[in-house]
């Protein structure tokens, strides 16, 4: 009994008043001032730190990070296809083991307070199911520490690479959580064929959809129209996410806002990285229309680029900077995207900071939530299902 | 003798081969492998860390940070004028003491390895010389720890606020290093009048010029033309900097590149923050034309916005992200802007990593310079003129 009870004293949920939070059987049992720990129960003094729900890494690629493999200078050329082809080649040459690498990145995330990750995982006719199997092993190894959703992701194309559909089908039978897709026009050269296939898989396995859409301007807008049509036709409202959706940052504001209204009506979500060097969907446009925005690190230190550290509080800062957010309520919205927004997109159950919620929690030493975002100091404590899983910025479990 | 000699063993200048660096009388005396410390001389093991020249914070506002004053929610409205007016008002209400605040920010910078700072300092008919006097005291108090250049900066306008010229004149007589300016069209409503005044002051006092230019598109382009004309007329080639110069990121690439060629010909420098939410001058365009680009934090946690931490290695990362730099040589160029680029703009003497250079040095634990930029870990050691002034990310001198 005592082991399953934890009293977190002197913490400020979402930066509010100081309270004590009683955690029992993995959930928040009671939030009130001046509680007393049961005899023998563990009690921790939060020293007035801010209590947040576990951060949510809603868009990344666990299978392909180079973390812990020594510095590898970036080699790929400038186009998307250069990056995809270079990566497929280097995956073999450098022995980028998906299990080992996903363990490293997931535990780094956990140290920064992410308690849930949605990871796209490559499947193609070169690597077959290796990525899926590696990340599945990581998901199993870290069960209870961090929730990992696997997106079956046709990174090298679906129709243009026969055999990929069968791999995705296999992955979904073997436990992939989400059906992925990628640039139906520019990559797969057949938007109708690509999207019909993605939504058919989703219907067959009863899984949500998350589609990478890098296509710019009107090309991307066209793909968004096709996705929205299929979301409605398959009655998948609330279960479709478009990742990146750069086209929503197009100069033609009226066109972008009209697309965003359609997305809101179809209850389609957007995932962003807040890329600073190209147009991105603006958080205010999405918020005004009622479209849920979540955020992710995207690739971290991989064959696509050298940046990234898996810190979703720092990602909230990037999101704030990219959207010119300065006021507290706006910076807090950026934080919302990296917590509640991600939880909504991942459909996490009992997520939040109220009694009854699952005790996936992060303690941050900061004055206000906005202060936590702009300074993103090392997390003091991370709890997953009521258990302490990270302290002072580091997961308690060692990575391989 | 021993006190003035320091042997820095096992360091890798700019990430190259491991060597020992002998520092004598504040300068790099000898770079060679396997040196031996003189009897009684101090010797430090760098443990193969990368040795960089002191980072250069080439554009900031030391007088107005709110660091250490508790979290203050952002209050200003969206326009530039809103921010300027709000700040002038809050400066009194919140007692933003320029000396105390500039000490805090300068020492934070030093902890992150910046050994030189160019700070614009507000002067207007409300605050008079208070900012200048406060930052001048800081410059004096930190002499030998960090070099501070003061730009006499008419933040609230020059012609539109009679009396400001006299304050700038006074500041230049009293030791301001650089003549500042601000948006000659949009702020001062008289571009010819404003720029004539700025260049006349520069000529009278023999000082360089650094002009804030937020003006977008063709308005900014016009101001750049006027600045370039005056740079040539006053023979100030190499001594004029334009800060921000957002207009150089205008969609009309041909026009922007033509302006950049003119800047190169007039040897005018650009300072950037790599703002992610608006057009900025692209580092590659400037590099190709031969225009020196330096970088800065701009305002840090002030009435203009809540972001910033004074870390110029992290700024190099922002610059890399903003410019979509992925290859090592490109990320290294971003670092160059935050070191050598800044040193060129500030005209720092004996700057660099060769024998005879002043021993303003930073030790960073990273595999390569690009790795140092993307991870920007706490600096192991910072030397100023051969003296240890910061360790493990913190200046040895306490801030007020």
From TrEMBL, chains A, B:
Gene3D superfamilies: Metal-dependent hydrolases (3.20.20.140), Urease, subunit C, domain 1 (2.30.40.10). It comes from the Bacteria. InterPro entries: Amidohydro_3, Metal-dep_hydrolase_composite, Metal_Hydrolase, Metallo-hydrolase_Enzymes. It holds the Pfam family Amidohydro_3. One of its GO terms (molecular function) is hydrolase activity, acting on carbon-nitrogen (but not peptide) bonds, in cyclic amidines. NCBIfam families: PRK05985.1. CDD domains: Bact_CD. This is Cytosine/adenosine deaminase. Residues 44-390 form the Amidohydrolase domain.
């Amino acid at each position: 009994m005592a082991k399953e009870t934890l009293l977190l004293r002197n913490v400020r949920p979402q930066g509010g008043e100081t309270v004590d939070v009683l955690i029992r059987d993995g959930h928040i049992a009671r939030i009130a001032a001046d509680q007393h720990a049961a005899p023998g129960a563990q009690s921790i003094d939060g020293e007035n730190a801010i209590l947040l729900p576990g951060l949510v890494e809603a868009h990344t690629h666990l299978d392909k990070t180079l973390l812990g493999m020594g510095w590898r200078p970036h080699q790929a050329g400038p186009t998307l296809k250069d990056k995809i082809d270079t990566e497929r080649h280097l995956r073999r040459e450098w022995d980028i083991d998906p299990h080992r690498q996903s363990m490293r990145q997931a535990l780094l995330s956990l140290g920064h307070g992410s308690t849930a990750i949605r990871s796209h995982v490559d499947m193609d006719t070169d690597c077959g199911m290796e990525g899926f199997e590696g990340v599945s092993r990581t998901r199993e190894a870290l069960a209870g520490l961090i929730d990992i959703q696997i997106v079956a992701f046709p990174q090298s194309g679906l129709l243009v690479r026969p055999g990929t559909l069968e791999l995705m089908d296999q992955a979904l039978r073997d436990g992939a959580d989400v059906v992925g897709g990628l640039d139906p026009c520019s990559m797969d050269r057949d938007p109708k064929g690509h999207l019909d296939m993605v939504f058919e898989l989703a219907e067959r396995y009863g899984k949500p959809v998350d589609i990478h859409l890098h296509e710019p301007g009107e090309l991307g807008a066209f793909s968004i129209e096709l996705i929205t049509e299929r979301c409605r036709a398959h009655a998948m409202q609330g279960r479709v996410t478009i990742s990146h959706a750069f086209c929503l940052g197009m100069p033609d504001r009226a066109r972008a806002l009209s697309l965003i209204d359609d997305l809101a009506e179809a209850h389609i979500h957007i995932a962003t990285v807040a890329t600073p060097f190209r147009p991105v969907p603006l958080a205010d446009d999405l918020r005004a229309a009622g479209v849920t925005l979540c955020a992710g690190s995207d690739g971290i230190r991989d064959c696509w680029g050298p940046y990234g550290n898996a810190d979703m509080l720092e990602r909230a800062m990037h999101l704030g900077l990219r959207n010119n957010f300065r006021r507290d309520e706006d910076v807090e919205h950026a934080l919302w995207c990296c917590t509640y927004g991600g939880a909504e997109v991942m459909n996490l159950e009992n997520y939040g900071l109220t009694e009854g919620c699952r005790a996936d929690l992060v303690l941050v030493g900061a004055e206000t939530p906005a202060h936590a975002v702009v300074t993103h100091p090392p997390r003091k404590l991370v709890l997953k299902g009521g258990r302490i899983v990270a302290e002072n910025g580091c997961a308690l479990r060692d990575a391989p």
